[in-house]
Every structure is written in C-alpha cells, then in structure tokens.
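Structure first, sequence second, as always.
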C-alpha cells in the first residue's frame, strides 16, 4: 500500500475473501500504534466499486448453491456403541471426535431425518461421494483418517452397507506430487455405496479444484472467517448433476444434556456459529434465512437443515439402507416401530431444532441491520432532497409544488413548510420499494390516495434525475427484497416493518421522532386495551365492538398496531368484518412513513382474515388530528390530495363511539438549537384553558399543552355525550401538580375512570428508580406510563354527581417483561381495582394532609390575604439554558468559552443586520431572527430569551468581573458567568447576590413534583436551578437593595457602598413567634435556623410527604423551638462549611505502586470514580478513585444522608468526573477547580464526615409536638 515500497499511480485490489477486521481488533491496533490493513478502510484500499457475492454468483450459474447440515450427536449413544474401541490406552481418538464422525457419516449417507417443514432428502437418494474434512490439527486429522471407518463399522453394527467411507489424510508437509496424488484419488469415482474423504488441518482451504466435491466437514473451529469462506468455496464449484454442495457441522453433546444447556456452551457450538457468521458476511441471502428463522411460523430449510442422533435413536435412519423421508403408511409403520426409542430419548429432534433455531437468531442474526439501513437511507434521502430543491428553482416546477404544498397544509396543518414537503417526497422515493418488497401481493401504491399524490408530484420532477438516482439504489433495494422475502405470516412482516419504522426515525429523522414523541406500543398493552374496551362496551352500553354503529378511531395510529390487533382480536364477528373495515374503523397519522406502514399493515391484516381481492383501507387519513378538529381545515376543491381530503371529510361526519390508541408523548423541544417546537392549536388549547387550566393551582401551565394532554381533551370532546376513550400514555397526570385541574375535570366529565399505573419513571434515580421498575416502552420513553380508560354512559356526566375513579398500581420492582406478562393475563374485569374518592384539591393518590394548609407558608408570591410568609421573598435557582458555556471548574476555560460564544453571537447580530438591510426589513421580528440564525451547537446554545436580542440587534460585551463562584450541584462548586444576557432566567437572584462583595446565605429546597424526594441544603453562593437535579427554590437570609451613590452612612458602617442589606425574615413572623412562644429573645436568625432544623425532621417529612410533592413547605410551630433552632444552626454551619470539616479518619487510602515517584497532581487526578464490585455486587464501602488510588472502609452509615435521589457521597462520585458536553464538545474537568492536588480525594472524606455528623444531629432532633 506504500508508494515508497511499491510505486504506482493507481491500485486495483481483487479478492475472493475480503479480509476485514472487527472493531475490537482495530482498537487494539490503534492502541499499539500498529498498522492494520483492513479492506473496509477506504483510505488504504479506496472505495469498493464491484462485488460479486455468493448469492449473485449462484443466481448467474457461476457457483452451485449450498446447504448447511447441523447434526447433534449424543455422546452416550456413541460411548455405548464404541466402548471397547475407545477404552484402549493408546486410543488417540476422543469421544467427542468419535461422535462427530458418526454425525458426518449420517449426513453423507443422507440419513438426516426430516427438516423443520417436513421435507428432507428424498427416499433412495444417492449418498454423497466426495468430501473434504477440516480438523483442528495434523494430529487430529491423522487420527480421524485412521479411525473413521472403524468408528462407522462399530456404530453401523447391522453392516447394511449403507455407505462405506475411505478416508485419507494430507497436510502441509506433503510434497506436491504426494498432495496431487491424493487430490486425484479424491476426484475419482469411489463406486456405488462408497465415499472418499480427504482430511486435513488447513492446507486444503485454497488451491483445491475438485468440482464434484459434495461436502466439506468442519469437525473443529477454523482460525479465521476467511479460512471458513475459502473452505466453503471448495464445495460450491459447479459439476454435472450437482444440485448442492453441503456444509456439514457435527456437534457432540454430553449424554442427556438439555438443548438449552448445551447451546450455552459457546466452545461446543463454536464451529457452528463461526461457519454461519462467515456465510452471513458473504451471502446476502443468508440474512434472509436468519430473518425467516426469527419471524416465520414454518422454519426455512432452503439453507439450514438440523438433525439429531439421540441416546438410542433407531428412528434417525432406516436400517434397510433407505432414507427416513418415507411417507404415507410406511412412515406411520416406522413411527410405531420406533415409538419406544423415541420415548427413551430425553430430548426429541424437534427440541433440538427449536433450540438451535432460536440460538442462531441470537448468535448470527444481524440485529443492527435496520440501524444500518436507516443510516444509509438518511444519506440517500438527503441526495433526493438536494435534487428536489434544485428542481424547484424552475418556475414551472415551483408552481406545481406550491399547489402541492398548499394542499398539504390544508390536509395536515398550516405548519407544513417547504422543507417538510420536500422531506415527505424524499421519504416516499426511498421507502416505496421497501413496502413493495414486504407487501408485494397488495397494490398499495396504486390505490392509496396519498401515495398516488406523492407519485404525481414526483412525476412532474422526474426529468430532474430523480429516477436515475433511484436506479442507482437498485442493488440496495434488491438486498432488502432478499432479506424480506419468504416471510410467511403477517405478524412476521409487521415485526419487520415496525422495527424499520422505529430504527428509521431514531437514526434518520431524530427531530421528527422527538417532536412527535414516536414510540411503539407493545402488543400486550394493545390487547389489554382492546379486551377492556370490549368489556366496557358490554357493561356500560350493552354493546360490542362488532356492533353496527360502533364507530372506532385511532387518532394517532403510528404503524397501525391498534387497528390490526382489533381486526385479529376475534371481537369483530366474521360477518361484520367487511362493514367494520369499510365504514366503522378510522385512523389518522401525521407522519408519512408511519401512515404508509399503518395502511399496508391494516390492509394485510384484513386480507389475511377474509381473503379475496385486494381492498384498500379507506378509513386512514394523512392528517394532524388536532388540526382537523380546529375547524380551519378547508378541504373543498382539492386537486392533488383530493382522495385524502374526501376521507377526512367523511371521518369528521361520524359519531365516534370509541377512541383508542397511544397519543404522542412530546413535551416540547429539549433545546432551542433544535428549532423543533411543537405546534399550537387555538381552539383545542382554549378548551384546555377553560377546563383544566381554570381549575389548576399550578403557577406554570406549560405542560398542560403537552401532546398527550391535548389528546385527552380532544377525545373527551370527540365522543360528545357517550363513548369510551382508551389510551396508553404518559402517566404524569396521575399525581403531577399541573394536572390537578385535569383530574378534577375527568371526574366531572366521565361516569367511570379506570387508571392503571404501569410505573417505569426513569427520570428518578437510586432506590426510587428501582421501585419504578422497567420501562414499558423500552428506550422509547423514560416517563411514568399509564393506561387510562374513560367512560361516558350518560348516567352521571353533566349532572351534579361525580364519576367513579378506579385505580391500580402494577407494583414495585417489576421488570418490563414482568409487567407485560401481567398485563397479558388481565383485562378490565380481572384487574383488582381500588376505588378512590379524590379530595378537594383534585388529588387521586398521595392525598394531602388536611392540616398542612393551616401552617405558615415558607414563601408565598401570590398571597395578598392571610398571614405573611416567613420569608419576604425567594427565587428559583439560576436557569442558564447553556450550562456548558457559563459553568466550568476552570476559571480560565470558562472565560475562553464565554468569550467564544459572545463573539459568535455578535457576529450573528452583525450578519442579521446586514441581511435585514439587504431585504429592506426595517423592524425585524423575533420570527425573522429564528429563521436566520446559525444553530450550530458547537458555537452557541440559543434560548427563547437570547434570540429576541438578535432581532433587536443588541450586542453583548464580555465582562470578566461577572465570573463568580457558585453552587452547581450538591457539594459541588463551579465558576459561573453571572450575566443577564447569557443567563436565561436569573429570577430574583441579583437581589440576593448583587455583586461578589455582598455575602449571603440561605437554603435551597428542591422543586415540588410527583417523583421528587424532598431535599434542602444550606448554601452561601448562587445556586443552580438543578442543584438537586430538577428545579428548586432559594430562600435567602438577606436580600440587597440599591442605594443612591454618595450615601455615606452605610459606608461609614462598613457595609457595601452601593447596596443596603435587608432582612428577609418578615417582621410579622418575628412578632408572631414572640407572641406564640412568649419569648421576646427569639431573633430572626433563630427563626431561620428553626426552619432549617424542622425541615430536616424525619417525622415532618413523613407526615407531610404528599404535601411536599405538591407545594412548598409550610412551617408549623412545635413545642421544642430552641431544640430545632440549635440543631438547624449546627446543620447550616456544617453544610455551608463542608470544605473546612476534618476528613473522616477511618477511611483507608491505598495507593498502587510507588507513590513517591508519581507527581501528586497525576497521582490524585480524578477521571470517573466508581464503587468497587465483588462478584457483581456493588461494594459501597470501597471507592475506586482512579487506577492508582482506592478509598475503603467507608461506613455504610454515611449513605443515610440523602439529598434527593442520592446520598451526599454519591453526589460527589457523580459530579466530580471529567465530562464532555455532547452538543458543544466543551470539557469540564474537576481537576481544574483547586490547586490542591488532594482536593477531591479529601472532599470525599470530608463529605463522609458531614454525612455522619448530619445524621447524628437529625437522629437527636426533638419529637414533632405541635403547639395548640
């Protein structure tokens, strides 16, 4: 490859067996700085421009096709037969090799029994005549050659002359003459009922030209995949009257061992997996075979046959020399004769087949195939997008596109833009051939109105080379057809298409998946909802899903799982299927690819049930369900999408009885950089505001407009006065603060509410996360998931009485699989529901304590009546929306990062200003800036507060005096750039920390939400909003007010010249405490520390646990005021002064190697700490600080001090690690924080001390005895 070694202007590489190394080998080579010539490295070999694989070569008649025969042989059977021969002390043949010889002989004799589908070798079919055997070594090959015939003779004791085998050995020590003589011997006809086998270790992998070779026998694993493929190539040479070359893989199984246990032994089946993996890598058709094994009811035998020789299995091969493939009466007679032998066998041939098939999928299946497909298609679609955009620069093309775009907006929603429409056309181009491959018997593309409309638009653009681009992909589409062909059932096709959909969107269109909350509903959940809906109709309406007039809609159909399972459920009578399918089933989908998949899935399911001619499903509409309900969709006078709009109009006229499905999960974009906002729906959102919104006490109502809440409101209105809504969705509404109005509205609007909480909230951590158990949607959603069934039967809704709430929690610590198994066995009638009466606040579960509201508020922004709160003001923590840019352990790196992003921002302002001038825009709006700015996350993190500044053309100046220390997380300080322009929301923090000179302290309380464990911490620096991981509030001891310049009074007193310090404990509170405790010596400091101490009380936290999840704390007055105040003072001093406490002396610090020769900053450099493990169990007494330093003997008691979901010690482990922000690429290194090399290692010891001392104080707190 090196010009200095072999000069050349061009290089052309050609090989029959590409040598490609796996990623592990490549990584090892990189680490060793070694040159690795892997043929997939384009920098060395250049791009691949031609490939002729096994499949193509067979198809073109250049090679003979192959079959793999896998035979398991029970060693007990062999040992019993060959006991005397194997007992000799000089026997060089092991038992497992003898068993493999028996397997090879049976295969060559074609005594393999029947295959999975009942086929096999034909009766009387001639045995194989020539084979090459591959052994592990020369010694093994020699032994096999010497003993092969002897072993077969002992096994075939009937001496029925089925097949006599002559075996010779050859190896690399043989000279050319001797080697060629043996190859000539192999080529010769051995005569009837005779076979010749040439055994070797590896010298026959290449250079063997014996076209009439019938088989290769792999008795031991090969050294490499290349060796395997080269060896297989020997048997694929063409010869007259040769239909197949056979690859024979015998496996010896210990006597009586169960298939599952034997298959778990990777070494025993290593040869099998190695050969099959090599075939998969070199034959596209083999992927289809593995695919069919996984998906088909009838297992394929076109490539793999599996047989088994049991412990006493006379039925495996007839003793009269014929094949066991007999049929009819002969087969029945043979079956009766061998019944005893079959009963004696511990495991049948079927057991082995099923077990091996299942393991083939795990060991050989290409699980990443659809991800690879999505990556390829994403690039291909981009090329189409580029060509379509170029075509649209032509006026005549643009005019047609504008009409197409206009109708898309009317059919879907007004938010569809040029880019969306072009993406849809590109998706149509690249996915249509895949649907044609999977559903080749259905004329989907010719009948579906959306597909036809897309195709018409593409036909207009056809002269722009789109068709030519697609033809270049024909090879790719052919590979898809090969992989998909032969799937013999609808469920298998549906699994493939759903995997494609899931992987495609996550890989190729992540923004679409994020904006729409795309997740796939497990079938167990779908079936539960369908069963329960049928029972609800029976119970409340005396009707059935099958009845005429029961109109059913899935408004967010996805890939069509709900309608498909409904058709297959059996609840719709055969005589009602046609009516239901054509007139009473409806579905909407907003995503083109999902719409296509749903349509073909539903059509295929219906066709499987009723047969006959293809009938399109006319109940599906490409639309935005929410927008369709807005009353703004003008669907008259359509041209391009007329068929789709007609379906939509028909649907809108129906009186819907049942709404069923899985609403989208989207809760808004994670980052403004994504430019991926959810749409707004005026009429629907107004309905939410006038129902759910007006009844909520929450201050922030943003999440009331999440897609799944909109779906509940939409469905509640769509069924009008009678009907059923059955959803699986995000379960945040069950106990979330924002949803109290929704909960109250549902009780008022519906007669019966069934809520099944499936848990799975993985936005928690620690023990709470373990309690939540597995995620129903796998990686699709980390939220709580719940099934909600709402019933309006007209008995109570609209009247004065309320509906009945039935609730069930699936339970704690359950895996996803356990949850699905449970749901799979249940329905509405078998779930043990608990009837709940909601309280006045709208709580369903975790209902609040009635006395809590009577106590004094910690802080209250909205109260204008009643007693004043304890604190005059408080603030949210600092929300920056660009933490990576404005926080850092290193002050220098922080300054550099801030300067960089400010420079980029200012350049965007300048660029925008020039653009406005060139376009004549004199008063630009925020929307103009939103569509203009560069959203490159390595340059800046945009926010809704920063973009308007661009529109105002405001520049930002760098001011390094704004770099201050702050609290970023629990016991984790970092440098912060505290600036109004670069901090998204500062709240009232500038009043509390107006400059570095004004000191302050207070405590930070975590935000109240359903999954939060109450926590608070005293701090003396600006706290981050997510100090505890998710929101919170800061209650300062003081605030500061600005003073007029020149006021000398405060300067003379030694206070800040520019600010006046104000006490944040209200005067009314101080007077109240004087009065209630009859103690005028109580100070505001005492009240502050009393509050801090009381909030640490385990009794207080337990009694008011539900309230603390829904509101800020309220502070009762207890008998032992002084006891709590003193404890609170000790706790605050301990927590604020955590860096000054003594490191815990009991912790043992162990250093590997010679610490004296390693610089301290290197010795104590932290990367990522973790707990030790012993036999897979976490050992929290030992922390692996780095590869040199270990801390042990950490007392378990230290982990009792919990701050939210983690202990204080675990917060240190989590936060003090080197992290690289995935969007910006900025590195934040805790080693940069302090000049003291031991800072972090000593911090761990100090936090152990803090934890132990905290719990001593907490354990000694007085009882919670309330004053009268």
């Amino acid at each position: 490859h090196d010009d200095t070694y072999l000069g050349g202007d061009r290089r052309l590489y050609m090989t029959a067996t590409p040598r490609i190394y796996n990623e592990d080998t490549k990584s090892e080579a990189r680490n060793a700085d070694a040159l690795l010539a892997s043929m997939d490295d384009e920098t060395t070999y250049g791009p691949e421009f031609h490939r002729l694989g096994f499949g193509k070569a067979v198809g073109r008649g250049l090679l003979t096709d192959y079959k793999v025969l896998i035979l398991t042989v029970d060693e007990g059977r062999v040992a019993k037969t060959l006991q005397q021969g194997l007992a000799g002390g000089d026997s060089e043949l092991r038992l497992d090799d003898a068993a493999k010889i028996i397997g090879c002989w049976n295969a060559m004799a074609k005594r393999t029994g029947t295959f999975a589908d009942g086929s096999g070798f034909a009766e009387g079919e001639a045995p194989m005549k020539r084979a090459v055997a591959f052994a592990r070594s020369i010694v093994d090959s020699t032994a096999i050659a010497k003993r092969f015939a002897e072993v077969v003779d002992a096994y075939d004791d009937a001496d029925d002359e089925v097949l006599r085998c002559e075996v010779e050995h050859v190896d690399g020590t043989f000279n050319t003459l001797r080697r060629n003589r043996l190859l000539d011997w192999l080529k010769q006809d051995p005569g009837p009922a005779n076979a010749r086998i040439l055994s070797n270790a590896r010298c026959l992998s290449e250079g063997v030209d014996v076209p009439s070779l019938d088989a290769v026998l792999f008795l031991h694993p090969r050294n490499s995949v290349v060796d395997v493929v080269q060896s297989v190539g020997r048997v694929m040479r063409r010869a007259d009257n040769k239909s197949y070359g056979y690859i024979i893989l015998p496996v010896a199984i210990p006597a009586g061992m169960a298939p599952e246990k034997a298959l778990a032994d990777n070494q025993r089946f290593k040869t099998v997996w190695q050969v099959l993996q090599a075939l998969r890598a070199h034959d596209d058709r083999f992927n289809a075979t593995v695919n069919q094994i996984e998906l088909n009811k009838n297992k394929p035998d076109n490539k793999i046959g599996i047989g088994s020789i049991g412990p006493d299995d006379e039925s495996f091969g007839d003793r009269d020399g014929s094949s066991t493939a007999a049929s009819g009466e002969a087969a029945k007679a043979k079956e009766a004769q061998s019944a005893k032998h079959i009963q004696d066998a511990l495991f049948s041939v079927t057991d082995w087949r099923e077990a091996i098939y299942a393991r083939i999928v795990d060991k050989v299946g290409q699980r990443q195939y659809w991800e690879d497909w999505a990556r390829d298609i994403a690039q291909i679609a981009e090329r189409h997008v580029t060509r379509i955009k170029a075509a649209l620069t032509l006026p005549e093309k643009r005019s047609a596109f504008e009409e197409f775009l206009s109708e898309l907006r009317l059919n879907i929603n007004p938010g569809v833009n040029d880019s969306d429409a072009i993406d849809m056309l590109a998706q149509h181009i690249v996915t249509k051939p895949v649907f044609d491959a999977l559903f080749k018997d259905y004329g989907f593309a010719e009948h579906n109105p959306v597909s036809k409309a897309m195709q018409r638009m593409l036909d207009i653009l056809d002269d722009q080379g789109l068709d030519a681009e697609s033809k270049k992909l024909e090879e790719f589409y052919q590979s898809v057809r090969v992989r998909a062909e032969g799937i013999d059932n609808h469920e298998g096709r549906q699994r493939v298409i759903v995997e494609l959909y899931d992987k495609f969107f996550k890989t190729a269109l992540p923004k679409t998946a994020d904006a729409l909350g795309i997740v796939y509903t497990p079938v167990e959940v779908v079936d539960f909802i369908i069963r329960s809906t049928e029972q609800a109709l029976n119970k409340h309406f005396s009707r059935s899903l099958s009845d005429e007039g029961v109109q059913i809609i899935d408004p967010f159909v996805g890939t069509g799982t709900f309608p498909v399972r409904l058709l297959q459920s059996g609840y719709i009578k055969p005589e009602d299927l046609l009516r239901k399918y054509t007139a009473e089933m409806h579905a909407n989908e907003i995503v083109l690819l999902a719409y296509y998949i749903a349509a073909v899935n539903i059509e295929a399911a219906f066709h499987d049930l009723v047969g006959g001619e293809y009938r399109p499903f006319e109940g599906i509409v490409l639309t935005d369900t929410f927008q369709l309900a807005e009353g703004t969709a003008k669907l008259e006078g359509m041209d391009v999408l007329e068929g789709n709009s007609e379906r939509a109009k028909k649907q809108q006229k129906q009186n819907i009885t049942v709404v069923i499905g899985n609403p989208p999960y989207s809760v808004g974009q994670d980052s403004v950089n994504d430019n991926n906002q959810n749409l707004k729906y005026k009429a629907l959102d107004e309905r939410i505001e006038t129902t759910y919104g007006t009844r909520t006490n929450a201050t922030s109502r943003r999440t009331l407009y999440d897609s799944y809440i909109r779906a509940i409101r939409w469905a509640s209105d769509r069924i009008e006065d009678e009907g059923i809504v059955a959803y699986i969705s995000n379960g945040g509404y069950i106990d979330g603060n924002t949803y109290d109005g929704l909960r109250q509205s549902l009780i008022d609007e519906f007669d019966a509410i069934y809520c099944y909480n499936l848990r799975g909230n993985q936005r928690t951590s620690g023990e709470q996360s373990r309690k939540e158990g597995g995620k129903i949607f796998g990686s699709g959603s980390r939220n709580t998931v719940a099934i909600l069934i709402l019933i309006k039967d007209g008995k109570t809704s609209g009247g004065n009485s309320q509906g009945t709430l039935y609730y069930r929690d699936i339970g704690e610590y359950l895996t996803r699989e356990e949850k699905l198994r449970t749901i799979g066995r249940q329905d509405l009638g078998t779930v043990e529901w608990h009837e709940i009466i909601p309280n006045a606040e709208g709580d369903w579960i975790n209902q609040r304590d009635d006395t809590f509201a009577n106590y004094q508020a910690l802080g209250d922004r909205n109260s204008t009546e009643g007693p004043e709160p304890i604190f005059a003001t408080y603030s949210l923590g600092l929300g920056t929306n660009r933490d990576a840019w404005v926080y850092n352990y290193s002050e220098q790196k922080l300054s550099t990062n801030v300067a960089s992003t400010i420079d980029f921002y200012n350049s965007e302002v300048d660029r925008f200003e020039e653009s406005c001038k060139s376009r004549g825009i004199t008063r630009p709006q925020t929307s103009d800036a939103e569509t203009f700015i560069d959203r490159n996350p390595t340059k800046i993190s945009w926010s809704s507060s920063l973009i308007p500044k661009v529109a105002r053309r405001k520049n930002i100046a760098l001011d390094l005096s704004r770099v201050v220390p702050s609290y970023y997380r629990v016991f984790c300080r970092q440098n912060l750039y505290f600036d109004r322009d670069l901090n998204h929301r500062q709240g009232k923090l500038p009043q509390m920390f107006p400059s570095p000179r004004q000191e302050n302290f207070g405590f930070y309380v975590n935000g109240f939400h359903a999954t939060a464990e109450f926590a608070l911490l005293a701090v003396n620096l600006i706290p981050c909003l997510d100090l505890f991981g998710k929101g919170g509030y800061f209650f300062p001891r003081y605030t500061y007010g600005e003073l007029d310049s020149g006021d000398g009074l405060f300067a003379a007193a030694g206070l800040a010249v520019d600010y006046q310090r104000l006490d944040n404990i209200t005067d009314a509170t101080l007077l109240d405490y004087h009065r209630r405790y009859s103690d005028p010596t109580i100070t505001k400091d005492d009240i502050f520390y009393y509050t801090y101490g009381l909030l640490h009380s385990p009794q207080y936290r337990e009694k008011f646990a539900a309230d603390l999840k829904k509101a800020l704390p309220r502070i009762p007055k207890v008998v032992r005021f002084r006891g709590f105040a003193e404890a609170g003072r000790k706790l605050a001093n301990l927590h604020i002064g955590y860096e000054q406490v003594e490191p815990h002396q009991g912790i043992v610090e162990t250093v590997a190697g010679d610490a004296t020769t390693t610089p301290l900053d290197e010795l104590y450099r932290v990367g990522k700490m973790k707990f030790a493990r012993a036999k897979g169990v976490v050992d929290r007494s030992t922390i692996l600080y780095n590869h040199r330093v270990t801390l042990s003997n950490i007392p378990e008691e230290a982990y009792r001090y919990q701050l939210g979901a983690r202990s204080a010690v675990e917060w240190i482990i989590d936060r003090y690690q080197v992290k690289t922000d995935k969007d910006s690429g900025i590195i934040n290194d805790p080693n940069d924080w302090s000049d003291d090399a031991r800072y972090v290692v000593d911090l761990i010891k100090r936090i152990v001390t803090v934890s132990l001392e905290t719990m001593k104080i907490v354990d000694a707190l007085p009882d919670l005895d309330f004053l009268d």
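Margin note: The first strand starts at residue 65 and ends at 74.
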